[in-house]
Specification:
Its EC number is 2.1.1.72. With 498 residues, the protein is α/β, with parallel strands linked by helices. 46% of the residues lie in helices and 11% in strands.
């Protein structure tokens, strides 16, 4: 097929226009018999968006930056060669996509060992991509709609990234039904912010999912970039590992939309990847929400030392992260309440953690932060490698007034972390005080308790016999208001499902 010259795109595309195009694309996919639900439709849209964005942000820009640039995708497989031809439709288009385009992209080979070669990124993505649309005519309609989306200016990128966040949220909602829980963005922001990242630090999420931590880290750090050298270093320092093909595709698209054309993502079992890592692979910062409650294969478990072998993935991740961090490296990780109280192997890994690292802060999240996927209460652990733990500070995030839990329609807001941020004491954690929602325990107390880290707030267990009638009535009114608030939320959810 010969290349067809493309129309010049407008300078920017409004958010409303992009939203309209995306809605039309999704309406088109709903008509196709081969796509069943968002778990089919959104990946289909994502890989097409990825090819269009890759063509504009990488292939078209490459020759302008480097006269010797070699296109990662050769003719006739580039977007402009096939996607911009309105008469290329029906079974002819479907056959080309299924039998030629996707196999070609999946078979691309870049430089050996070069994770930044875009051909390696493309082949990793497309080796698990399928065109699930049965109608070549509807596929043509979908491609036409995607081709209307432009990535020519920074405004376009930011607008599309904003809309893509909403798509990812729905993707997470759909994935949650299949047992995958994604980190809410307010939690992402808080963990990244309280890790106090700096330019020049290598940052890894070994269970990166759709790339939320990596995007947040990049957005925070790119504000500090002043030179091309710093920017290139930053792109190299943002790294992720993802086991499953669908989140890997979504993470690649997410990072591409935020300015990372060849993201350093590895599609592997992160536990095996980290166990096989060398000293040169160690990183400065790990930000992650590993899978918990799942079981790993025996061959993976046996990669770990005797005495630390367990099928509970969350503890295997903690153990692997300890070896993945550089000296003085630091980590912020999500763990459920149940893991914190584990004995046996879990207790031994907690002992190892406190011996090798300063587990300085545990933030206890309120009920329902991960709603509607799971009601399991979770915690954020922050630790630094290189010195043993002397004491652990605990901080309990309280629910907003009138709330008993969070829901899908009324999730946690980033502003609810503000009291904890003020208490934190900056990067050096200075001036912390006990009381209200903050308390601490010595390492010796934790050890005597069998390394149980599921420590309730001692300041919330007040003796009712020493409280005045006025206090008790006030507490009763507060409880009644919370119940009414919960009923309002339930009523809103019921209305939204009608």
């Amino acid at each position: 097929m010969a290349s067809t010259k493309k129309k010049t795109a407008v300078a920017t595309t409004s958010r409303a226009r992009l939203a309209s195009v995306i809605k039309s694309a999704r309406d088109t996919m709903r008509k196709d018999a081969g796509l069943n639900g968002d778990l089919d439709r959104l990946p289909q849209l994502s890989w097409l968006l990825f090819l269009k964005a890759f063509d504009q942000r990488v292939e078209q820009v490459g020759p302008l930056l480097d006269p010797d640039y070699r296109p990662a995708i050769e003719e006739p497989y580039r977007w402009e060669n096939w996607a911009t031809k309105p008469d290329f439709s029906g079974n002819e288009l479907k056959t080309f996509v299924n039998d030629e385009l996707i196999p070609y992209l999946a078979g691309l080979k870049g430089s050996d060992g070069d994770a930044d070669d875009p051909r390696n990124v493309l082949s990793t993505i497309f080796k698990d991509v399928d065109n699930r649309m049965q109608s070549g005519t509807l596929l043509r309609d979908l491609v036409n709609l995607v081709d209307e989306i432009h990535f020519d200016s920074s405004d376009d990128i930011h607008t599309m990234a904003f809309l893509y966040e909403s798509i990812l949220k729905e993707m997470r909602d759909a994935a949650g039904d299949s047992g995958e829980f994604y980190t809410p963005r307010p939690v992402n922001r808080f963990m990244v912010q309280q890790s106090f990242l700096g330019l020049g630090e290598s940052i890894l999420d070994p269970a990166c999912g759709t790339g939320g931590f990596l995007v947040q880290a990049y957005e925070d750090l790119v504000k500090q970039v002043e030179t091309d050298t710093q920017r290139r270093r930053l792109l190299d320092d943002i790294r992720g590992i993802e086991k499953k093909s669908l989140p890997y595709l979504l993470a690649s698209m997410n990072l591409l939309l935020h300015g990372i054309g060849a993201p350093r993502l590895v599609r592997e079992n992160a536990l095996l990847q980290m166990r096989d890592a060398t000293a040169a692979d160690r990183v400065d910062v790990v930000l992650t929400n590993p899978p918990f409650g799942a079981e790993e294969e025996r061959s993976v478990v046996e990669k770990f030392p005797k005495g630390y072998q367990t099928q509970e993935t969350s503890w295997l991740f903690v153990h692997a992260i300890l070896d993945q961090l550089k000296k003085d490296g630091r980590c912020a990780i999500v763990l459920p309440n149940g893991s914190l109280s584990d004995g046996g192997v879990g207790a031994r890994i907690k002992q190892k953690l406190m011996k090798e690292c300063d587990l300085h802060t545990i933030v206890r999240l309120p009920q329902g932060v991960f709603a509607p996927y799971t009601p399991i209460p979770s915690n954020l652990l922050f630790f630094e490698k290189g010195r043993p733990t002397k004491e652990i500070w605990f901080y309990e995030i309280s629910l907003s007034e009138g709330r008993r839990s969070y829901t899908k329609t009324k999730p946690m807001r980033f502003e609810e972390f503000e009291p904890c941020v003020k208490w934190w004491g900056g990067a050096k954690r200075e001036g912390r005080e006990e009381g209200g929602y903050a308390w601490k325990m010595s390492a010796a107390e934790i050890e005597n308790a069998g390394f149980n880290l599921d420590i309730p707030n001692p300041n919330s267990a007040e003796d009712l016999t020493h409280r005045s009638p006025e206090e008790l009535v006030t507490e009763l009114i507060k409880t009644e208001n919370e119940i009414l608030g919960l009923l309002d939320e339930l009523y809103d959810e019921l209305r939204s499902t009608v």
